[in-house]
Design brief:
The chain is α/β, with parallel strands linked by helices and 377 residues long. The protein has nine helices and twelve strands.
Length: 377
């Protein structure tokens, strides 16, 4: 659907998370949603795993040193079907604002690098998980599934998309988003040191500078979208919380800060905060400014050749256990239903001890059976 609101204010959050503290993290989240509401924003974007902060310690310490951090991190990750998530959704509704939020989602016993897009009514428009955690992230987080891969949603402020960290440089993810006509993109980034810390043979890719100043504007240019690229920031106290106690002199935090950017649909830099800035980085969005960049190069439309090159996308969820009925139809499962995010904000909470069952609509079972038969399964 065409956007009914083409001109509006949006914000990227550059702030310090509530390290290892779920309740503090939720409090900070609601604070910045309220501040964005006061500023008249229609959209506010948080960094990758803003709750309870990005576990950068995993890149710097060994397995045994990491265990106490890992246990505390898991204990303070956010369940999607929780009072804490409902408080955040209520804050979005109270301020009439779209909220893109990254969080460490705990689902049963697995953590995911998750994002939600919350509507101004507090409903969840999209719930996605990073398709593949990056390098040592796989020691902490699990993969996303097919039905948590979607990144672009139609809204009245345009087609809004979200990706986490290095997904923003994944050519397949960009191609898929471009094919959906994305107009505003949240490139959510974690906490990252800058190039002053780089030591060979660590690749330049693995510091903040190329991600804030090359990858993010490249996404804007290649897709013709406004790109909000929020980064977390770090204080001296935050460094200490993320450093093993036996290290007497933790590193200074300055190299981690000031990397948030906002770019226009032609790659023009629209906003860049100082290293010391903590708060909302604001931008005025005008969707009509994307017309000419997309007229020159629309890789989801006139500037592509699907007769020559196409992308196969499988958005089905694959279960460890799939139920079959008496006729042999296979169950179809949906992650948003299973983790409770498809419920309205004011829906009654389940009674203690109740068991949540995945819904398997008859029509979906028939479609799954037809798919299986057509593909020889």
């Amino acid at each position: 659907m065409p956007a009914s609101i083409k001109k509006y204010k949006a914000a990227a959050v550059q702030a310090e998370p509530g390290w290892f503290d779920l309740d503090l993290s939720v409090e900070k989240t609601i604070h910045w949603i309220n501040e964005a509401g006061k500023a008249g924003c229609k959209l506010v974007a948080f960094p990758e795993v803003w709750i309870p902060g990005y576990p950068y310690w995993m890149w710097k310490i060994n397995y045994k040193e990491a265990l106490p951090f890992l246990k505390q991190y898991r204990e303070n990750s956010l369940p999607s079907d929780s009072d804490q998530m409902r408080k955040i959704r209520a804050a979005a509704r109270d301020n009439g604002i779209y909220v893109s939020m990254g969080y460490s989602e705990i689902d049963m016993a697995t953590l995911h690098l998750a994002q939600v897009l919350i509507s101004p009514t507090g409903d969840i428009l999209n719930h996605r998980r990073k398709i593949r955690p990056t390098h040592v992230e796989r020691l902490i987080f699990g993969d996303g599934s097919g039905d948590t891969m979607e990144s672009v949603v139609d809204t009245d402020i345009g087609r809004v998309g979200q990706l986490n960290c290095w997904e923003n440089m994944n050519p397949f993810m960009k191609a898929y988003a471009a094919s959906l006509g994305e107009q505003v993109h949240i490139a959510a980034w974690p906490i990252y040191p800058d190039k002053t810390t780089l030591k060979y043979p660590d690749p330049y890719t693995n510091v903040s500078d190329p991600n804030s100043d090359i990858v993010s504007p490249a996404y804007a240019i290649e897709t013709g979208t406004f790109v909000l690229a929020p980064f977390q920031r770090l204080s001296a106290e935050g460094v200490r919380k993320n450093t093993p106690s036996h290290i007497e002199e933790p590193e200074p935090p300055d190299c981690y800060n000031g990397h948030t950017r906002i770019f226009g649909p032609d790659g023009t830099l629209l906003a860049k905060p100082s290293k010391d800035f903590e708060g909302l980085v604001l931008v005025d969005i005008d969707l009509d400014e994307a017309h000419l960049p997309k007229a020159l190069a629309d890789f989801g439309g006139h500037y592509m050749r699907p007769d020559l090159i196409r992308l196969l996308v499988d958005t089905r969820r694959k279960e460890l256990i799939t139920h079959a009925d008496q006729q042999g139809s296979l169950g179809v499962y949906n992650t948003m239903d299973r983790v409770g995010l498809s419920q309205p904000l004011d829906a009654p909470t389940p009674m203690p001890g109740s068991v949540k069952k995945a819904a398997v609509p008859v029509q979906e079972m028939k479609q799954q059976k037809q798919y299986a038969e057509a593909n020889g399964y």
